[in-house]
Design a protein that fits this description.
With about 425 residues, the protein is α/β, with parallel strands linked by helices. The chain has two domains: about 10-265, 3-Layer(aba) Sandwich (Rossmann fold); about 265-430, 2-enoyl-CoA Hydratase, Chain A, domain 1 (Alpha-Beta Complex). About 30% of the residues lie in helices and about 20% in strands. The protein contains 15 helices and 18 strands. It has helices at about 20-30, 50-60, 80-85, 115-120, 160-165, 170-185, 185-190, 195-210, 250-260, 285-290, 290-295, 320-330, 330-340, 350-360, 375-380; strands at about 10, 35-40, 65-70, 105-110, 130-135, 145-150, 150-155, 155-160, 215-225, 235-240, 265, 270-275, 300-310, 365-370, 385, 410, 415-420, 425-430. A six-stranded mixed β-sheet has the order 1-10-9-6-2-3, sandwiched between helices. Strands 15-14-13-12-17-16 form a six-stranded mixed β-sheet. A two-stranded antiparallel sheet has the order 4-5. Helix 1 packs across helix 2 and helix 13 (about 330-340) runs antiparallel to helix 14. The longest helix has 14 residues, at about 20-30. Residues about 390-395 and about 400-405 have low confidence and may be disordered.
Length: about 425
């Protein structure tokens, strides 16, 4: 495959127009000579990423050279036909490959336990094995195009890059160890940090993958969530990696733009925060607890986070993880200690990581308004249960008579309302 990627980066804080995006993709389609291409793109839980629009543009310009699209599901449930049609409107059903993190994955390499411990400065960890969807290394494709939005993330620091492939299309052992290692390193110093130990470890895993996979073209995108929908895409970089050149030269600059536009530093912490979860996106606490992750740096001690979750009807996306969360609850290190006593920690590291990420360690309270689960189930896992319907205590969206949806706002009583908790990070500003 040959490419010179002459227009490798476009960055415009006022917004990249559909026409400019189309021209950018068209030039890539000319420069790239690959004949069998697979697109790796976020799943429906990241509908707001505009990755569907970009994937559709890739299909329009590359045409029949696009052989498949693989939603980067990780542990999430597969997208429904309706979700695929809404997010990737121009793809036919037979072009989708639904990733299964439990099956149809192959091993491509392992980072030894000692190296993981050295990278994290944490003792008594695990080796980090890398398993990926088998179609990435079985000769089905001669190029992978990874489309991913970069924004603050609780596991990796800034999403995208190698995470989109190695976690999004990773096997259970990879997801288990990577998430647990990150959780022990600490969510509050991970969030919004482009240079975490896990990022460095995944980049090593990417080098291992590239010895067996085709080259990967990373399309690193950044959106400004405060802008109108047609002006939110502000940065896109195309970085090609191969077994001989495994470093994506465009990730660092894109990550810096994400830090500057997707982290909101407010003047002080809040005693009451209300986060609303869009019901068609957030149907489990596994995904919905982004409301906790992305606001915890802005929640005062002894304060309350009220999560308005009309669509949440389960805890885990995967049945075994759901069972683990119901059994041990969101009780921080107490839950982890009990998992060790029961011999349930090994093999459930991802659930353990999620428990640590979601726990308050008695610093603040979480009250879930989740009528589809109800009081008994919510209190059983350690959360408070919010009375009333799923909108009481915080309206689902602010009323602004035709204006764009507001991302967040402070009401007259000094409460912070976050309407789209998954698209940014809120923290107390370093004044």
């Amino acid at each position: 495959m040959q490419t010179d990627l002459r227009s490798s980066v476009i960055s415009n804080r006022d917004g990249i127009s559909p026409e400019v995006l189309s021209d950018f993709i068209a030039e890539l389609s000319i420069d790239i000579k690959a004949k069998k291409i697979a697109i790796v793109a976020p799943d429906y839980s990241r509908l707001a990423s505009q990755s569907g629009i970009i994937a559709d543009a890739l299909l329009r310009h590359f045409g029949e050279r696009i052989a498949a699209i693989l939603p980067a599901l990780g542990t999430h449930v597969a997208m429904s036909k309706e979700e695929k049609r809404e997010m990737f409107s121009t793809f036919s059903p037979n072009q989708f490959i639904d990733h299964d993190f439990l099956n149809n994955v192959n091993h491509v390499g392992t980072i030894p336990k000692g190296d993981v411990e050295e990278a994290t400065e944490i003792d008594d960890l695990y080796e980090l094995p890398f398993y990926v969807n088998s179609s990435l290394i079985d000769g089905s494709f001669d190029l992978l195009i990874s489309v991913a939005q970069l924004l603050p993330h609780e596991v990796i620091g800034i999403s995208g890059g190698s995470k989109n492939i190695l976690i999004g299309l990773g096997g259970r052992p990879t997801i288990e160890v990577s998430h647990y290692v990150s959780a022990l390193w600490g969510i509050e110093r991970t969030l919004g940090n482009p240079e975490t130990p896990l990022r460095r470890l995944l980049n090593r895993g990417l080098e291992m993958l590239l010895q067996k996979s085709p080259p990967i073209l990373f399309l690193n995108t950044v959106l400004n969530p405060n802008k109108q929908a047609d002006k939110r895409l502000i940065h896109i970089g195309a970085g090609l990696v191969t077994k001989d050149q495994p470093i994506d030269s465009t990730f660092a600059s894109a990550a810096q733009v994400a830090v500057e536009t997707n982290i909101f530093d407010l003047k002080a912490k809040f005693n009451e925060v209300i986060a609303y979860l869009e019901p068609k996106i957030y149907r489990s606490t596994w995904i919905g607890n982004k409301a906790i992750y992305r606001s915890r740096l802005l929640i005062a001690d002894n304060a309350t986070l009220r999560v308005v979750a009309p669509g949440v009807d389960r805890f885990g996306e995967d049945p075994s993880i759901d069972e683990t969360l119901r059994r041990y609850g969101y009780r921080g290190y107490e839950a982890i200690r009990q998992m060790k006593v029961d011999g349930a920690l090994d093999g459930n590291l991802a659930a353990a990581a999620h428990i640590l990420h979601s726990s308050t360690f008695d610093r603040f309270k979480v009250e879930y308004v989740a009528p589809k689960l109800g009081r008994e189930e919510m209190e059983a896992v350690g959360f408070l249960y919010g009375e009333g319907d799923a909108i009481s205590g915080g309206q689902s969206q602010p009323s602004h008579d035709g204006e764009e949806d507001v991302l967040y706002e402070v009401d007259d009583d000094g409460r912070l309302h976050i309407y789209h908790p998954g698209v940014a990070l809120w923290r107390e500003g370093k004044q």
